[in-house]
Amino acid sequence: MTELLARRNAAFGAGAPLFYEHPLHLVRGEGVHLYDAEGRRYVDMYNNVPCVGHANPRVVEAMARQQATLNTHSRYLHEGAIAFAERLAALHGKQIESVILSCSGTEANEVALRMARFATGRRGILCTNATYHGNSELVGSLTRLGSQPSPNPSVRAFPFPEKYRPIAPNLNEAQLCEAYLAELGKAIEDLRRSGDGVAAMLICSIFANEGLPDVPAGFAARAAAMVREAGGLVIADEVQAGYARTGKWWGYEVTGFTPDIVVTGKPMGNGLPLAATAASRALVEGFRARTRYFNTFAASPLQAAVGMAVLDEIEQRDLRGNVTAVGAALKAGLQARRGASEAIGDVRGHGLFIGVELVRPADGSPDVELAKAVINRLKEKGFLTSNAGIFANVVKIRPPLPFGMAEAEAFLGAWDETIAELAA
Ligand code: PMP
């Protein structure tokens, strides 16, 4: 282990992120399970990329068959990618007609932002103050700004909406919603005054990187209306929220707004790099006309075959139904355990995406040390989670979609032991 770590530091450069106090050396995955070099089995409660399960046979077969038949770039006619784009667009409302395929969430968000700038003739971009949408220079300039200005002068961040640590005390839900909308209003006004105006608001539909907050009812729809009123477009980042993660196809169905542009990534290829920017035909063609966009590995027969296999799995195994049922049971189980320890401040989430906020009982402040200890102890017990949120004190639970009731029950048992050991 120490030797492998030393080699990793040399090969990648020290500082490449790594989970857990004692890093995990994985060698194999199958379904919702991962296996380490000693043959120990873990329940994967974290990874959304292998959304239809590790080493999914249908996906593996589609990948191998297509690679053995034909794989080229996209400047030839090929039915596969066309059919995949048609199928993806059809999963949204009628405003979404055409698709630009790419290879990562970063690329797909970059396309979306540039698309919005071309369409509106404006430059300003709105995002939340605790978000992450990718790592290019433009998209990366939206990363976790807090109260700092973005390195990009056309970016404005507004406080992400949440009910657990509300922006102002003693407000009812409707007032809280207004308070957050007022902050968005200030950001819009600031962009207007700067001369950039509003090209787009880019938000994760369920504010995943913000720590999966419970959002005041109506916020997302009202925010979208304000952005459109200012002449901007609304981009839903569904890289984490989409593909049945919440039990619905899209996170925007949960928070209740209608995007102009939808970005998807991570789970689309079950591990094969595959992402998409979907919008109206007019928006997509406006972008294509200005850029002659081409992406070497995207819209290939391989991406299409794998993308189709993933959608087939979700549909034919009714994984949305599974997510809804198991997710509800797991969340209810965790909520029922809130009383077990005052360190459990909040349990929230949608479908198979749940966050447990750990706090210091004395003052309710975020307890990062406890979150880290819980995550490491859960790993020792065979359950892989990680942490999220602005204070990194939220235990993030986000297993592959075929995660079953038996695993949920086993996890709750391990959770009880862990809390009793560390935070009783
Ligand atoms: N959007 C969101 C909401 C994400 O969480 C991430 C990655 N964590 C991205 C975009 C970027 O995706 P990628 O790493 O594929 O570029």
UniProtKB/TrEMBL annotation:
Classification via InterPro entries: Aminotrans_3, Aminotrans_3_PPA_site, PyrdxlP-dep_Trfase, PyrdxlP-dep_Trfase_major, PyrdxlP-dep_Trfase_small
UniProt keyword Oxidoreductase present: no
Lyase keyword on record: no
Cofactor: pyridoxal 5'-phosphate
UniProt keyword annotations, A-Z: Aminotransferase, Pyridoxal phosphate, Transferase
One Gene Ontology molecular-function label: transaminase activity
PANTHER family: ALANINE--GLYOXYLATE AMINOTRANSFERASE 2-LIKE, PTHR45688
Membership in a protein family: Belongs to the class-III pyridoxal-phosphate-dependent aminotransferase family.
Identification of the protein by name: Aminotransferase class III-fold pyridoxal phosphate-dependent enzyme
Species of provenance: Siccirubricoccus soli
Upper classification of the organism: Bacteria, Pseudomonadati, Pseudomonadota, Alphaproteobacteria, Acetobacterales
